[in-house]
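Priority: medium. Attachment 1 of 2:
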């Protein structure tokens, strides 16, 4: 039997989701409930109805995109799914280094996503593209939020 003494870190990409339902409004401020390391957000919303998206991490604005910036900085997956990356990478790429400029929601006390709409909406689904690590060391396997050296 071979006993591994150096940890093996296998990255696992996963999706965390949050559903929001509210009275019909043209502006929402949503407290995000994600707690892993994320490389971007997916918004299930009519993309043509969005005027502005702002992500606040504690007191700081990570990004604030109007319609023009949404076209330049975000990736339209389909008419109802928008990828807002935390870097310039493509949504379909599976490389683990995409998380280098991501957001560690675990270390952030609170974060808000603010969205202004052209027409009223009454629900919104938000998904976070996260990473977790499968760690194998000394014959034991576990999931961890960070690599072990």
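Attachment 2 of 2:
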């Amino acid at each position: 039997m071979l006993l591994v003494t150096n940890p093996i870190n296998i990255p696992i990409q996963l999706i965390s989701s949050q559903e929001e339902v509210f009275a019909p409004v043209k502006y929402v401020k949503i407290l995000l409930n994600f707690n892993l390391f994320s490389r971007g957000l997916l918004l299930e919303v009519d993309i043509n109805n969005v005027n502005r998206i702002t992500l606040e991490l504690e007191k700081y604005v990570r990004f604030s995109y109007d319609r023009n910036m949404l076209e330049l900085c975000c990736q339209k997956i389909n008419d109802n799914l928008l990828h807002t990356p935390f870097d310039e990478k493509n949504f379909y790429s599976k490389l683990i280094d995409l998380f280098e400029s991501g957001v560690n929601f675990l270390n952030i006390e609170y974060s808000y996503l603010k969205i202004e709409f052209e027409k009223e909406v009454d629900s919104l689904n938000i998904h976070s593209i996260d990473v977790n690590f499968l760690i194998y060391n000394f014959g034991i396997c576990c999931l961890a939020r960070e690599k072990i050296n």
